[in-house]
Amino acid sequence: MKKIMNSSSDVLRFCTAGSVDDGKSTLIGRLLYDAKGVFEDQLLSVKRVSDRRGLSQPDLSLLTDGLREEREQGITIDVAYRYFSTPKRKFIIADTPGHVQYTRNMVTGASTSNLALILVDARKGIVEQTIRHCYIASLLQIPHLIVCINKMDLVGYDQDVFEKIVSDFRDFAAKLDIQDFHLIPISALHGDNVVNRSLQMDWYQGGTLLYTLENVQVANDVNLLDTRLPVQTVVRPNTVAHHDYRGYAGRLASGVLRIKDNVTVLPSGLQSTVKSILTPKGPVEEAFAPQSITIELDDDIDISRGDMIVRVNNQPILSQDIEAMICWLGNTPSTIASKFAIQHTTKNARAILKAITYKLDINTLQRVENQQDLQANDLARVTLRITAPIFYDSYRKNRVTGSFILIDEGSNNTVAAGMII
Amino acid sequence: MKKYRLSHLEELEAESIYVIRESFAQFQNPCILFSGGKDSIVVTHLAAKAFFPANIPFPLVHVDTGHNFPETLEYRDNLVRNLSARLLVGYVQDSINQGKVPEEKGLNASRNRAQTVTLLDTLALHQFDAALGGARRDEEKSRAKERFFSHRDEFGQWDPKNQRPELWSLFNGRKQIGEHFRVFPISNWTELDIWQYIQQENIPLPSLYFSHERACVRRGDAILAMSEHITLRETEYVENLQVRFRTIGDLTITGAIESSASTTEQIIGEVAASRQTERGNRADDQRSETSMEDRKREGYF
Prior knowledge:
The complex is a heterodimer.
Chain A: E1 10-17, H1 24-34, H2 40-52, H3 61-64, H4 68-73, E2 80-85, E3 89-95, H5 102-111, E4 115-121, H6 128-139, E5 144-150, H7 159-173, E6 180-185, H8 209-215, E7 228-230, E8 233-235, E9 247-251, E10 256-258, E11 262-266, E12 270-279, E13 282-284, E14 286-288, E15 292-297, E16 308-311, E17 317-328, E18 334-335, E19 339-344, E20 347-361, E21 366-368, E22 373-374, E23 379-392, E24 403-407, E25 414-420
Parallel strand pairs in A: 1-3, 1-4, 4-5, 5-6
Antiparallel strand pairs in A: 2-3, 7-16, 8-9, 9-15, 10-14, 11-12, 11-16, 12-13, 12-15, 17-23, 17-25, 18-22, 19-20, 19-24, 20-21, 20-23, 24-25
Helix pairs in contact in A: 5-6
Chain B: H1 8-26, E1 30-33, H2 38-51, E2 60-64, H3 70-83, E3 87-91, H4 92-97, H5 114-125, E4 130-132, E5 149-152, E6 180-183, H6 191-201, E7 212-219, E8 222-225, E9 238-245, E10 255-258, H7 264-273, H8 291-298
Parallel strand pairs in B: 1-2, 1-4, 2-3, 4-6
Antiparallel strand pairs in B: 5-6, 7-8, 7-9, 8-10, 9-10
């Protein structure tokens, strides 16, 4: 029998960025097909449509472009999620389109990713678009980056071309906040170094793309130091068997929690100790992020949704004023003094835009000051005042307690994604 | 050092439970759409875990087309009893009797499309503002773009081009009066994940999923279970086949596959080796290239 995932398999979530011509669809198509993420009936349907359009080869972008308008116009509208697995890992791909609403879509896809896969055309080297992609990956604090130098077949599989791009990339990466990156010479079209090792590039000693995806260490990406449990809901069975049970349910944002730990409940500041911990598998002595758990405390404290349970000697920052980098997602612009609903962990409040410190020109990475409004796809550093204090960590330290969204109170649309500095 | 890491099933489970708890916390009156299929069974199992030791704090809703496999109904009633859950049933026959939706005629007639009307009526009747479903993004191409929290307008319609961006694990469930949400807690699971989880948790399933002998009729590439709702064409005939079902919907549209897999483990082996998607033999998906998107826009599951 074929080997499949087992209890030692884990999950890697990654996003792919690229535009129409860099071979991204071909690469994903090959990865999915070679790793059995595509089925025969899906491929047959792609071939049928490609034939009808008079294409000589199956257009693999049809695998990811599912909506009627996308198929008709040959464009990608939205982030699409794709899945495949090997015996080592389950992979979740957030595939983001390259042209329309570029920044907004990549920020969305990147927010849940541990790894970003970026494509560079070997003939062109590092271009403006590469800089944009890498900047967003670093802004969203994606811990791992794979840069595929694609179309190596079109430069004669030349090692010098690859080394030049590697050297350019290292210079540029030093300016960004990227810790772990891998550069791989590939040809998505011919399959060199995607799943199978290239016979044309024996000078390359590193792993293939799939090997690298399978072996990137993601266990260390979880913050296990700062214990944070945002309370989602209170579990009260009110049954004879569990008459006095009062459990606080939530997903550990970070850290480890053990029975008898001394904890503080925010915002009240009241202290207690952990009496019991329940996971989906049953009662445990110790839980860790990102488990979904329900805990009981030894004391009867008034706790509700939006509160946060933390360790007594390791507490988040408590403030009503925050500085953040935001990405404007809304179609209508916004100005200083506008008010929004803010959602941060399980807490809801209202916020007012106090100041725009600068906007970032994503093509040059230059700061542009004296800006009065925020438009779709803008990245900006801002100051917000919130109606009630929130408990947060900087986004660099904690991607869960350091992120928030802003919601337009009229339309109820999500209009901004924020990362607290 | 001790390893603090989750297996792929544990991570998916933690995410789904988080989503189910968010639905309970953010909406006033949620429900679970229960079809009797393995995906909605897994969602119900996860909901029971999310609120344990309390019972699931919202009802299960079943849209009954009248074309059910009897095994599905029996399973449903047992499950509801075991979980001390509340069950509400909406009947497609009622919608037909009330003249809200015509009964399809002809050889390929099904009540698949009619379900949408009954579903929306049932949600409106009980004033549900969120319906949790077992749809997965890997099932079908238009579902690949679904959100966890999927907004529906006052007509129950889905606007795929105008969806709210969904970042981190911050789900925006705000809505106007009359609008509702569909919530998909197992969005990130694949068919293989579902089966591995069923095995790990030892979740009982309707017998239809396992190999059995059944009177069937071959129609096109599909194998359909013979029943009173199927009209034989001239060239068609009934034969006894060793089959099981990969998905369970209406009797009239759910295709069986020839299989001897009679345990969860054997099914996992079969799914892992399969080169066809599980909806590949659903007649409802094959009416056109974008038939799922069209039905979803109208308010289908």
